[in-house]
Write a structure and sequence with these properties.
This protein has 280 residues and is an alpha/beta fold. An eight-stranded parallel barrel has the order 1-2-3-4-6-8-9-12. It has a two-stranded antiparallel ribbon with strand order 5-7. A two-stranded antiparallel ribbon has the order 10-11. The protein is built from nine helices and twelve strands. It has one domain: TIM Barrel, CATH 3.20.20. Helices cover 39% and strands 16% of the residues. Bound molecules: zinc ion (2 copies).
């Protein structure tokens, strides 16, 4: 078996350029933003964009792809205007995914900002139900580092969001980010800790709900709740933690997408190479 590894790449110059960049990093799956991640703007895509992107991907054998939602989205918010803006943005991203033939849209569920955990989770589930998830797309909730009133820190909390929604279970999945899991307190490094982590995924979420992994080392210590990504092997998860992950039969068939820092000490290519070496 080969690991399915890729990176979050830029779409500047046209979405099909992402495929070329991915190829340069030696990735065979990947992730993109559909617009500018720090604004509400989502680009509109034509059928032609979709055809070009799909053709380029097929030529290079890159699958699957993920659209990462903008960082502004917060479905957990008690504020109606922010909730509505978040919905509009996510809907535009889902529609972009459908146009481009992208399989997944991933988003950070959000923060309750004072309304309380239960209210926040309910709001997120309500938000999911308001979205029209296209036939060919699966919406993914990403686990979070858990800072402040952020929701989705534990596997159980993600499951609650899915269970509270009326939307069919098959339309919603989960993306596990290794940096966020570590920051949230999960031990990916020791054999025992990693076993406990897998067990919690199985019991509290259901292993089959996990569709994508974000592979990032962490600059900060376990339980810090800080979201600072680091190159593979240079952080607190370290090579030992990633060796556990890439050799786990529960997880290693999943697409693995790197979101290592922009100011690369190591290129995506080097990170991908390292993960391939740790496997087997
Ligand atoms: Zn992530
Ligand atoms: Zn992150």
């Amino acid at each position: 078996m080969n690991l399915n590894l890729g990176a979050h790449v830029s779409i500047s110059g046209g979405v099909e350029e992402a495929v070329e960049r991915q190829n340069g990093e030696d990735g065979d799956c990947g992730q993109i933003f559909a617009g500018s991640p720090r604004t509400w703007s989502v680009s509109e895509y034509s059928d032609e964009d979709g055809e070009k992107f799909t053709e380029a991907r097929q030529e290079e054998g890159q699958s699957p792809y993920v659209i990462h939602s903008t960082y502004l989205v917060n479905l957990g918010t008690p504020k109606d205007d922010l909730f509505q803006k978040s919905l509009d943005c996510l809907q535009a991203e889902l529609d972009a995914a459908s146009k481009l033939g992208v399989e997944y849209v991933v988003f950070h569920p959000g923060a309750h900002t004072g309304s309380g955990r239960e209210n926040g989770i309910e709001r997120i589930s309500e938000g999911i139900d308001r979205l029209e998830i296209p036939e060919s797309v699966t919406l993914l909730l990403e686990n979070t580092a858990g800072k402040g009133t952020t929701l989705g820190k534990t596997m159980g909390e993600l499951r609650e969001m899915i269970d509270n929604a009326e939307t069919g279970d098959g339309k919603i999945g989960v993306c596990i980010d290794t940096c966020h899991a570590h920051a949230a307190g999960y031990d990916l490094v020791t054999e025992e800790g990693f076993e406990d982590f897998l067990q919690e995924i199985e019991e509290d979420l259901g292993t089959e709900k996990v569709k994508v992994l974000h592979m990032n080392d962490s600059k900060d210590s376990r339980g810090s709740e800080k979201d600072n990504h680091q190159d593979i092997g240079y952080g607190e998860i370290g090579e030992k933690g990633f060796e556990n992950i890439v050799n786990s039969e529960t997880l290693n068939h999943l697409p693995m997408v790197l979101e290592t820092p922009q100011e690369h000490r190591e290129s995506y290519r080097k990170n991908i190479e390292k993960l391939r070496k740790l496997y087997g």
